[in-house]
């Protein structure tokens, strides 16, 4: 990990990893203007036909190769993508239907290029050949270059433009969570992907956590019946708000960034039986910013679903980025779901291991490590490895792209694409409820900071798809007119 600034400890993800990366932000140019109620660009961009390049991919290409562009080389790249690209460069990607497929990191786009050159200097030889685009227009130039896939891992208010440029240029796209911040943005990306016959997917790695897979298995099999309510909490340390994110945190809240993990878990696990119905939120200020500011320390979000028989299910999701830095788990996460016939309680880091090393826990090593997400290991056969569901989710995505492009005759590409677009766990078209909740949450917090606390958003009422209501006021603000 050449080049990482070893000053501030930062357990770089929302999951509790068993090691700590030390990093500083590459540049100070992340604008403070991450508006709490962002106005999505509404200009409709003309759709282009799929360019000839992606049409040339065929099972006869020898060797079958997917050339990948990466937008953003920050913490999540270092944590998961880097390891994926390095491993797949060694062993390729293999499925019986596709045969071996090479995955090549061919280009990156970052603000300044500093991290790109740092990575190049320390990367394995076969990964040093990528082209580096920087500065204004870097993403557009990357999107237009000879690639098959673009992964978007820039700050979340910059996902939309990058993903749109890539899809318009005929590239399959993978976006880090939260995919985008409003439904009009989601609509536009889904439409371009559909018209250009491409995959557009989003990373929610918690769906691949073995515990969450088991929860969903019990629900789908009818063993756990009819969820009624539940809570999830994800608490990040102060060093996140005071260090890692300090440059862009003005006007932001911890919920958009991390509550989406649990919003997706809830929606994917329970949402097929019921409809999203209401969203409300409140929060606290005064530590990261002033009590009057629009910068939030912690947020409590409540989301209700309605079943066809009029029964309801309600979930509270608590998030924070002001937990003490010396908290033993660093990132604290737990869930509880109550059903008609059962209860499920899970704790991300209390999965059995407790560890203390003088002078090294809880910062460098965790007291209660979660080795499921992403851990570094010495395998029994002597190999050093990095593995876990944070990396597995990327391998799945590339397997899906390989399946579309190389998984059978070119004449059947359309069938393979259609089939993979139906996967609700990662397809952008299935991210509507999560994006709707994020859009509603941002609007509610914006109203709160403007002196109107206690607003709520009703979903799919006669007045519109997302309608904001202020307490004591008959006025309604339609955030999104079409049905969610
Ligand atoms: N799946 C997860 O658990 C998880 C965890 C952390 C972050 N994320 C998501 O990953 C994304 C990136 O987060 P991060 O923590 O890695 O951020 P970061 O601040 O560490 O890195 C951001 C990167 O984006 C680049 N960048 C910024 N603006 C750009 C632009 N306009 N054009 C090109 N590059 C640009 C920067 O150069 C930098 O390399 C966010 O959407 C975040 O929510 C996901």
Helix content estimate: 25-40%
| Main beta sheet | 9 strands, mixed
Quote the CATH topology of the largest domain.
Dihydrodipicolinate Reductase, domain 2
- Ligands: nicotinamide-adenine-dinucleotide
Shape: globular
CATH architecture of the largest domain: 2-Layer Sandwich
Q: Which strand order do you get reading across the main beta sheet? A: 15-14-10-13-12-11-18-19-20
Number of helices: 12
Question: Could you report the average pLDDT, rounded to the nearest whole number?
Answer: 87
Beginning-to-end CA distance, first to last residue: 43 Å
Strand content: 25-35%
Structural class: alpha/beta
Please state the CA-atom Rg, rounded to the nearest Å. Answer: 22 Å
CATH superfamily placement of the largest domain: Dihydrodipicolinate Reductase, domain 2
Please report the first level of CATH classification, the CATH class of the largest domain.
Alpha Beta
Low-pLDDT residue spans: 1-60
Number of β-strand runs: 20
What count of structural domains?
2
């Amino acid at each position: 990990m050449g080049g990482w600034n070893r000053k501030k400890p930062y357990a770089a993800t929302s999951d509790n990893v068993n090691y700590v990366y030390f990093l500083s932000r590459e540049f100070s140019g992340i604008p403070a203007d991450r508006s709490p109620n962002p106005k999505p660009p509404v200009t409709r961009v003309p759709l282009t036909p799929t360019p000839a390049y992606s049409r040339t991919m065929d099972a006869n290409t020898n060797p079958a190769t997917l050339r990948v562009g990466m937008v953003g080389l920050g913490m999540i790249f270092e944590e998961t993508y880097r390891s994926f690209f390095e491993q797949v460069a060694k062993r390729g990607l293999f499925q019986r239907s596709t045969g071996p497929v090479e995955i090549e990191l061919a280009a990156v786009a970052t603000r300044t290029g500093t991290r790109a050159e740092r990575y190049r200097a320390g990367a394995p030889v076969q990964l040093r050949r990528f082209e580096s685009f920087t500065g204004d227009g870097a993403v557009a130039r990357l999107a237009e270059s000879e690639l098959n896939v673009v992964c978007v891992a820039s700050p979340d208010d910059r996902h939309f433009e990058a993903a749109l440029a890539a899809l318009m240029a005929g590239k399959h796209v993978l976006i880090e969570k939260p995919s985008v911040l409003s439904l009009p943005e989601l609509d536009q990306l889904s439409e371009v992907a559909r018209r250009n016959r491409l995959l557009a997917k989003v990373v929610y790695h918690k769906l691949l956590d073995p515990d969450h897979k088991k929860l969903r298995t019990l629900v789908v099999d009818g063993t756990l019946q009819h969820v009624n309510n539940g809570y999830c909490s994800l608490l990040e340390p102060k060093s996140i708000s005071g260090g890692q994110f300090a440059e862009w945190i003005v006007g932001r809240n911890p919920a958009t960034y991390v509550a989406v993990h649990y919003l997706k878990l809830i929606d994917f696990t329970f949402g097929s039986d019921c409809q999203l119905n209401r969203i409300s939120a409140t929060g606290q200020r005064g530590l990261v910013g002033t009590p009057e500011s629009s910068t939030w320390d912690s947020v409590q979000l409540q989301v209700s679903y309605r079943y066809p028989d009029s029964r309801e299910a309600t979930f509270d999701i608590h998030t924070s980025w002001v937990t003490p830095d010396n908290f033993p788990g660093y990132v604290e996460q737990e869930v509880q779901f109550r059903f008609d016939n059962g209860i499920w309680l899970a704790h991300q880091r209390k999965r059995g291991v407790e560890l203390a090393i003088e002078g090294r826990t809880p910062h460098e090593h965790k007291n209660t490590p979660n080795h499921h997400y992403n851990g570094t290991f010495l395998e029994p056969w002597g190999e050093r490895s990095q593995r876990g569901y944070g990396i597995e989710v990327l391998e799945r995505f590339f397997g899906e792209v390989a399946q579309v492009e190389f998984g059978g005759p070119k004449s059947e590409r359309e069938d393979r694409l259609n089939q993979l677009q139906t996967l609700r766990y990662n397809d952008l078209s299935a991210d509507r409820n999560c994006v709707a909740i994020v859009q509603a949450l941002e609007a509610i917090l914006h109203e709160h900071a403007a002196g109107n606390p206690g607003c709520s958003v009703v979903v799919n009422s006669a007045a519109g798809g997302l309608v904001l209501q202020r307490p004591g006021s008959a006025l309604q603000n339609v955030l999104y007119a079409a049905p969610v």
